[in-house]
Prophage protein
Amino acid sequence: MITTIFKRFLAMIWHYFDFLCFVSALIVADYGAFLFGKPWGVMAVAATLFVMGWLSEVVSADQDKGSD
């Protein structure tokens, strides 16, 4: 019984694993940029928000193209 719950939990995490890794990488990159100085950190956050916004548009456009 416990193994079934554990397998379901891992399956749920694995479904979102790429997204979790991507967001974690952006957070670490932003933190690293702030270690170089506040202006670099602010520019990194701006770049991160730009990339996330662009990707959300790409994903949204791909979903809108579905079959008719």
In short: Residues 25 and 61 are 24 Å apart (CA to CA). The helical segments are 2-15, 17-36, 38-64. Residues 22-61 form one domain.
